[in-house]
Specification:
Length: 171
Amino acid sequence: MERGHGQPPGGTEARENRSTNGVVVPTTFAENGGGTRHPIGRRHSVALQGSIDTFALDDVLRLVAGASKSGRLTLRGTRGEGELVVRDGYVLGGSVTTDERVDEPHELVFELLRLDDGEFVFESIELDEFSDAEPADVALVLESAAVLLDEWREIEALVPSIDVLPAIVQA
């Protein structure tokens, strides 16, 4: 098989396509001897990745739900990290490092939405985790998380830092 123009020797081509909204779609390919091209190291999964600065987490979740995807969405930011497990476009569960007590889907998404920066990766893979979990509709999870986020922003407007201890002042 002939090498394509600009393709390095050995039959591999490496490049990264970055769309205008910051989502990175890996396009590293190898020829498998039969001329068929597949992503290196991932014959059955495709990662969607990017920055939440340019592609908001709620948009990523809507995209995954709209496509009825299954897999793991991982988000890493300076304040923490977390992951959501999704099956057929429904949230099953996950975890966050910001609050170990959180386990409900809308609470997990609330914690992830509070991250100001970070990178996300969605890997479309089959998972055995959370097999007993009740699937949660992404639209309802986002709606509930948005209510919590609005309430949290009201608290943040009144309390400048969680490190500040309130004191009762007698008039």
